[in-house]
Please model this.
Amino acid sequence: MTDTPQIARVVVMTGATSGIGAAAVQEIARDPGTLVLVGARGTGRTVPAGVETLPLDLASLGSVREFADAVLRRLGGTPIDALVLNAGTQSRSLDGRTADGFETTFAVNHLAHYLLARLLTPHLADDARIILTTSDTHDPAITPLAPKTLDPQARAHPPTSGFGAGMRAYAASKLCNLLTVRSLAELPEVRERGIRALAYNPGLTGGTNLGDAGPGAKRFMTLVVFPVFRIVGRFKPAYVMGPPERAGQVLAQLAAGTVTPPAGHVYVSLVKGDITYPEPAPLARDDEVRDDLWRQSASMVGLAP
Ligand SMILES: NC(=O)c1ccc[n+]([C@@H]2O[C@H](COP(=O)([O-])OP(=O)(O)OC[C@H]3O[C@@H](n4cnc5c(N)ncnc54)[C@H](OP(=O)(O)O)[C@@H]3O)[C@@H](O)[C@H]2O)c1
Model:
């Protein structure tokens, strides 16, 4: 165990090894009194000096449980001030399956973070924050492929692939993130202890590793898709692409509590670099859909609802 004298704050984070999270963790780690524990897969991932990494592969529920145990062992009873669940993946197909047999995008983006939030919420400090990175792609008003209904079993075990399947799965997983935040915000232990559960949309952000694009697809994005976004962005602000530094800065501010949404708001959306608090899509506000996802997710990860 590493000795860290005078820990003023503890931040536990996923998705800190590239893109938006890498920018965020730079800011979070700047405060010498903050102990940052990052869950990271593989080897060779770089994090700022002083940040500690613990093994975590979100594509395995066993790994999620081991990570939660390792965090608690490392902290030895010190509570967590911010739980930043930022990792995400996006694929072009629905063919990927995790070690547990779930479709990969659903499992990594939603199920693993659902389990981690449930395992670590009892260990949060009073007035702590849980931040789950969602996306405005959950909203059909912004992304035509966003879900209009949600069947968690069909997302966990999709029967077919087909056109836009990867994007549909990604958008649905981000809807699940928003619904999970709404459920977390309703938990008695969260309400009674002043904990804020927030869903953060960093908005369209360039220069990250999101998507499993090879060099050809990357060129296609740069030469075709991004110029189209630039034109569409003149009419639809959600299509204006921002840099990871700004998206990461706001994520760090949410974790630090220097940005706080008005009471009752759980959705924070970065639009053209500005922090906004819009209503999420109608499906994300549906209490029956929310409660059904919570129950079914509990059963999938082997917890009581
Ligand atoms: N970029 C955008 O336009 C945009 C827009 C809205 C929302 N978002 C959301 O923002 C978040 C960050 O995305 P990004 O654009 O910064 O993408 P990114 O550069 O690909 O970063 C994704 C992060 O998630 C981690 N991760 C992925 N799969 C993992 C797994 N199985 N186990 C452990 N860690 C895993 C990655 O770790 P490795 O280093 O090991 O790959 C990396 O740290 C995601 O939740 C994404 O959905 C992004």
The domain at 9-212+243-301 is CATH 3.40.50.720 (Rossmann fold). DSSP finds nine helices and eight strands in the chain. Residues 14-21, 41-42, 45, 56-59, 86-89, 108, 133, 135, 201-202, 204-205, 208-210 surround NAP (CB under 6 Å).
